[in-house]
Amino acid sequence: MARDCSAPAISLAKLDDMGDAATEESDRCLSLVASTATQDLIFEVLAALRRLERGTYGICEITGKPIEPARLEALPWARYSIEGQRDMETNGLARKTMFPSLSPAVTPDTDEPHDESED
Q1: pLDDT bracket for residue 47 (50, 70, 90)
Q2: Helix H or strand E encompassing 69
Q3: Where in the chain are the domains?
Q4: Helix (H, G, I), strand (E, B) or coil at 81
Q5: How far is it, in rounded angstroms, from Cα 64 to Cα 56?
């Protein structure tokens, strides 16, 4: 059965009945959230299958160590070991995308341009 995606669903609630319109909008938002969560889960499962094909399934993408069997039992699509997950949550992705430290263009004492070779 093919779906018709050519036109968005039209609200059946009348403009003068704000309660029905709000309920309908809330239902539509909940459906969108559920759909997005399902898509995310499918993406993670497919990524786990690719890791199986490459022979990297069960290896933490952060630490490079094996993921705990109990964790894989609970979350078969897990990318990170508990240690790697904790590290990622603590440090975020900052360690992968470090920005250079910013130095002032003008030194506060002299109002002259700052020469980094002096440091």
Answers
A1: very high
A2: helix 69-74
A3: 27-96
A4: coil
A5: 10
pTM value is: 0.52
* Separation of alpha carbons 100 and 72, rounded Å: 37
DSSP letter string, 89-119: HHHTTTTTSPPPPP--SB-TTT-SB--GGG-
Tokens of residue 92, six digits: 């975020």
Residue 73: which pLDDT band, with cuts at 50, 70 and 90? very high
| CATH code 1.20.120.910 for 27-96 | yes
Place of tokens 């898509």: 39
Check: CB of residue 21 under 8 Å from CB of residue 13. Answer: yes
CA distance 49 to 85: 20
Nearest Cα to Cα of residue 50 among 77, 14, 24: 77
Strands, E, within 1-119: which ranges? Answer: none
Calpha distance 41→77 (Å, rounded)? 9
